[in-house]
Structure formats: C-alpha cells, structure tokens
Design goal:
Mean pLDDT: 89
Number of strands: 17
Distance between the termini: 90 Å
Strand order of the largest sheet: 7-6-8-9-11-10-15
Number of helices: 24
Low-confidence stretches: 1-7, 229-243
Largest sheet: 7 strands, mixed
Helix content: 40-55%
Oligomer: single chain
Structural class: alpha/beta
Shape: globular
Strand content: 5-15%
C-alpha cells in the first residue's frame, strides 16, 4: 500500500482553502474529508523536495482540528518541534510555496516568524513551546496581545528538562494555556526514560477522556465548603483509580488520552476545553508517526527525514554518496576503540541514528546511553562517568551542544574531567538552515581553559582523532566533523593518536600559505591549484588543533610566506582569532606579512545546498584564491609604498 487513495466524488476542499478561516465554516464531515486531502497533498509535496515527513503525517488531524477550533493567527499556535508543521504551512497560505521547501530562497523546514503571521514563534530546537506559550499567555494578561496560546509538543520533546521547568511555572501562574502532548512514542530515536513509561501507564489505565476540565468549571460555581469538598473528591477519585498524572500534580487539567487521528473526537474535545478552561490544560493525544502512508509507517524511522521519493511506492531516491559519511566513519571508529578498551562508553541525546551511535549500540549495547532530548544531563552524566574513571564519548550535534554550555563549563572544564565531545554537523548543514548550523563551537570551546579542540580535515583524520581522544586523559577534548560524505581518502585499519597541538604540512609553496582548520582543507588545496595557474606558489597546512595551537607551524608559515590565510568552518572568534592573538602576543603583526582570517560571515546563513551556502560565505576554492591574491597584492603595494617613502626621505 502506498499513498492513501482519494474517495470517489470527493470535493477538492483543499483547493478552496486559502486560510484557516475557511475551516471554521466547514462541517465536521467536510473537515474529515479535508484531512484526507491534506495528507495526500503533504505526501506529494515532500516527495518532490524531501524533508521531515513522518512527524507531519502524525499530526494531520490535529492540524485541521486546531485551525478549525482556534482563531489563528489571533490565537498563537506553536509547534514543537517545527518540522511537524508542513501541513500547517499548507493550510496557512503557503501551499504553492511548498515546492521550494528547504530549497535556496524557499520555505524553511521549520516554523519561522518572518515567514508567516501564522508562525508566532520559531521552533527548530525542541522543548521550547510551553515556555513560549506561557510567555504569550502572560503577556495577554498584562494587556499585550490577545487570543489563546496553544503549544503542540511531542513526547520526545517532553523528555527535556526545559519542558518541565515551563510546566512548573505555568502551573504556579495558573494562566489559561493549552498544551497538546503529541504522543507517538518516537522522536528521532524511540522515546526513552521514565517519562515515556509514565505516558504508557496513563494510556493503559486512564479513562478515554477525563472530564476534569468541565468538572473544575462546574465546581467553581459551588459555594464553600462544597467547592473545597469537590476538589478533594476529584483528587481522591484519581488516587483510587491510579490515574492521577504528573501533569495534574503540576497544576494542569489533564484531558486524555485521546485518539489523535479521530478528528470528530478531537474537534469535540477542543471545543469543550476552549469554552471551559480557566487555567493551564494538557490534552494527551495518541498519534502514529507516518500515519496514513504505509511506506512511512513501515519504516524504522517512520520517514522522519527523507530525501525525494516516489509518492506512489515510497521508494527513496538512490543516494549519490561516493565516499562514506563522516558520521558512519566516527561510529565505526568508536566501536573499534570500544572493542579494545572496556572503559569507552557512548552517550547521545535522542540522536542515536543521527550521530551513528545506533551502530555502536549493536556491538556494545551495555555501553551505549540515549538520555533523551536532554543535552544538559548528557554532559553532566558524562562528567560523572569520567570522574569514575571511564572514557565517555558525548556525541551531540554542534548546534544542540550549545544547550549544555553551562554544564560544559562548570561540570567538565572547571573540574578538568576527560569527557570526549564528538561534535557532528560542524559548519553549514544545508537544508536545515541556520538553526542547525554548527557555527559557534570552535569559539565557545576554545576559550575554556584546559580544553583541547580538534577538527577533522577528512575521514581518515577523524579516525585518528577518535583514537587521540580515547587515550587523552588530561582534560576535556573535542573533535568536530561535518555532515555528509567524506573526501574519499583511504581509511586506516586503526586510528593512531595525533601528538596534541601538532598540525601537518600538506604541500609546500613560497608566496602564500593556507592554514586550514577542519574540512575546508580540500578547498584550500583546490585554491592553491588555482593560484598556481596564475603563477603563484602556495603552501597548504592542516592545523588540526585550534587549542593548543601549533605555534611552531604558524611561525614557520609567517616567516617564509608573504601572506597567511586561515580558513575555518566556524564563526568569527574561533581559530583565526586565536592565531591572530598568538601573533600579536609575540609582536609578529609588524607588517612583514599579510594575514587574513576567513570564517563564516557575521550573519545567520539561510538554508540552501551546502555548496551554495559556502559560496555565499566566501569559503569555496575560487573565493579563497581571490582573497589570497588580494592579500598578496595589498602586501606588495604596501611594500612598494614603504620603499618609495624611504627613497623620498633619503
């Protein structure tokens, strides 16, 4: 079974739906038909562009119900995480624009405030919706804005501490706020932890729909002491039935669990709670990721993130990778090291497949820990393991590691604990755009005392850096590597530890020196070839380390070349800044050579293909060659002007 077939003689309601207001004029039967059309249209759109399909298919009915009952955009609908929102985009005037989803100049794959008034809050990192929704609700009570706030949060996103911090505050403030818990028992990796078990218990024991909201509303009309007695009775009944939920203990009225694909039931419940609620309400909806599309439902990852595919059969477009992906190389190298060293353990934050640690788990299941979407906990958990004498590898995307910076500083760096940070998705990541770019880790780790910071220039270097981190025990160490395929170099049978703080020369030249930190090394070599065609000789070196710097290598390059160009896939303040700081401290910025530090621009680079993004950032080989040429010309012009001044003086 492939795409859901269209009922005979059905009216093309979606073609006549240019905004959510149209849904509020439809009958419930028409809304059910519209949901079927919306599912088919979403599949067709994502089949052409690729993207996050399974999560959106799981909330088709929720999307229709929420827009039909609430007055969006006056009512603020916040999706957590925003990749659930493709159907939402289709219903909110962006149906035709979906042809450019995640493409250069096209729609974002997440919600985005600048894209539509129906996106009141951007959400590309998880677990933020309840906090943001409470912000809207509180602002409303203070006279800023109007309308309700509705947060749709996945059960995986509810594994993060921030969600509980928000619920704790929301329960205390008592503001009218709606939280829809989209419980599909799977985020990117299967949901883990005690909270997931709590949801399963609620689903097994709780009544189909709690009438708690209406009971509270009715009880509020009773005089004392009957009002207090009614509240105690509700608590007692819940305790006797064993259905009292964590949400109720935190001050929320709990409604559910409900069938998230039963649209008439959803409509009825939402209409009741919208009328009756006078405080925070949580509606627990049970959904299926990929619902209504057999290829997605039958896939292990439910088509969480896919490239283009055949909408009828679900057959994915064939990969064009000619070299192994960096993530796969890391996972295999770590698995090999763990086979030799029983102290090696691996930790991820709900990204087992994304970081490759699902591979590690197959060979070392007892030493692989998925802690859920809880990066802060992951880092401190790793610190505890390190303090106990183990060798923890904390594998987290650069952009997600930002969420745990305080723990990196206080729990790891200050204590000098040898936690190993494997930083995936370093640099620009393409279609996921600025929210997922790994732009800042070089800077935010290199300024921490005692940290060692490495970057792999190719997949063979990544294998060696895994080996380096394994034997490193004198403090925290990090190594970064990009998304996607490697360069195709031969992989070593076994990684060999690299001397700490030592780079390597790749090719020798005379006029210009490229000093690369990370995966732009191949572009530096290509730039050197372009310069050779212009009659210039260029050296290329791989720094390997941002901290500690290979100061001997830097001194050698500035002493023997007229121009030094540092290149990195990171924001300003990183590797190049550290090179400048060293040269300044040594009094070497005396004009005897030109220097340029090439980084990502001081902006959030919008989504496109990685090649286009790096071209816009000035970090592809033609731009590198042009910058090197310009620096050399400027150096020679300054030297000529200085000589002319000396002649004039004499």
């Amino acid at each position: 079974m492939g795409i859901v077939t269209k009922p005979e003689n059905s009216t093309p309601l979606l073609d006549r739906t240019d905004s959510p207001a149209a849904l509020r004029e439809m009958s419930d039967a028409d809304l059910v038909a519209l949901a079927g059309e919306l599912r088919r249209d979403t599949i067709a759109k994502v089949a052409a562009t690729g993207g996050h399909l399974g999560s959106t298919l799981g909330v088709i009915e929720l999307t229709v119900a929420l827009h039909a009952v609430f007055d969006t955009p006056r009512d603020k609908l916040i999706w957590d995480v925003g990749h659930q929102a493709y159907a939402h985009k289709i219903l909110t005037g962006r149906r035709e624009a979906m042809a450019g989803l995640r493409q250069d100049g096209g729609l974002s794959g997440f919600t985005k405030r600048t894209e539509s008034p129906y996106d009141p809050f951007g959400a590309a990192h998880s677990s933020t919706s309840i906090s943001a929704g409470l912000g809207f609700a509180t602002a409303r009570s203070l006279g800023f804005g109007d309308g309700d706030a509705i947060a749709v949060i996945g059960d995986g996103a509810m594994s993060a501490g921030m969600a509980y911090e928000a619920m704790n505050n929301a329960g205390a403030l008592g503001k009218r706020l709606f939280v829809i818990l989209n419980d599909n028992e799977m985020s990117i990796s299967p949901s883990v932890g005690a909270f997931s078990k709590h949801l399963s218990t609620l689903c097994a024991q709780a009544p189909a729909v709690s009438m708690d909201v209406m009971m509270r509303k009715a009880a509020s009309l009773l005089p004392e002491p009957f009002r207090t007695g009614a509240a105690r009775a509700r608590q007692a009944v819940g305790a006797l039935a064993g259905t009292s939920s964590l949400f109720e203990q935190m001050g929320f009225s709990y409604v559910g669990p409900v069938d998230g694909h039963d649209l008439p039931q959803l409509l009825a419940i939402l209409r009741v709670v919208k009328t009756a609620a006078d405080g925070p309400v949580l509606i627990h909806a049970i959904t299926r990721k990929g619902a209504g599309y057999a290829p997605a439902e039958n896939s292990a990852d439910k088509y969480h993130g896919v490239g283009s595919f055949d909408a009828e059969t679900g057959a994915l477009s064939k990969s064009k990778l000619s070299a192994p992906a960096y993530t796969k190389v890391f996972a295999q190298a770590l698995s090999d090291e763990a086979g030799r060293d029983p102290a090696v353990v691996a930790i991820t934050a709900a990204m087992a497949s994304g970081t490759g640690l699902d591979v590690f788990a197959k060979t070392h299941p007892e030493r692989m820990f998925d802690v859920g979407i809880a990066e802060q906990h992951a880092v401190t958990f790793a610190a505890g393991l390190a303090a106990a004498g183990m060798k923890p590898f904390c594998a987290i995307y650069s952009t997600f590691l930002q969420r745990a910076y305080d723990q990196i500083v206080h729990d790891v760096a200050i204590q000098g604990l040898p936690v190993r940070f494997a930083i995936d998705r370093a640099g620009l990541v393409g279609a996921d755009g600025p929210t997922h770019a790994g732009a800042f880790d070089i800077a935010y780790l290199s300024n921490l005392p005692g940290f060692t910071v490495m970057a792999a220039a190719d997949e063979a270097e990544l294998v060696h850096m895994v080996a380096t981190a394994t034997v490193h025990d004198s403090g925290p160490i990090a190594f970064r590597y990009p998304r996607g395929e490697g360069t195709g170099v031969a992989l070593p049978e076994r990684g060999v530890p690299i001397p700490i703080g030592k780079g390597r020369m790749i090719r020798e030249g005379r006029d210009i020196a490229f000093l690369s930190f990370g995966a732009r090394l191949a572009e530096c070599e290509a730039a050197a070839d372009l310069l050779a065609a212009r009659g210039l000789s260029a050296s290329v070196a791989d720094a390997r380390f941002a901290k500690p710097l290979d100061t001997e290598l830097i001194e050698r390059l500035v002493s023997s070349h007229a121009s030094l160009i540092t290149v990195e896939e990171g924001a300003g303040g990183g590797f190049g800044a550290r090179v400048l700081e060293h040269l300044a401290s040594e009094g070497r910025l005396d004009g005897s050579f030109a220097i340029r530090t090439l980084t990502l621009p001081d902006r959030f680079e919008q989504h496109a293909s990685p090649g286009v993004m790096y071209e816009r950032s000035g970090l592809n080989s033609p731009q590198l060659a042009d910058m090197a040429m310009a620096s050399l010309v400027e150096k020679r012009e300054k030297a000529a002007a200085q000589s002319a001044r000396l002649v004039a003086i004499t």
